[in-house]
Amino acid sequence: MEFQWDTANQSHLARYRVTPEVVREVASVEPEFFLNEGGGSGTHMMIGPDESGHLYTIILLEIGSDLWRPITGWSSDGPERAMYRQERLRHD
Q: What residues make up the domain containing 60?
């Protein structure tokens, strides 16, 4: 999974204390993906833990085959954590 970075999306994510390293960790640990039905500019929502186990929600725009642009992200809230746990149970 590759990510498209520039100053705009890095600055936006930094406002929510999300770094490119966090996005890469979430993508590599145990992410779950959902269609983003919030009506924003992202196509997908990636929810998962970083290496310390903290859950993050990252909104992504699918650019091409295995290329994604992180739009925004934040520390996952209660409903997002529940979505993640429910999806993980389906895989076990």
A: 2-91
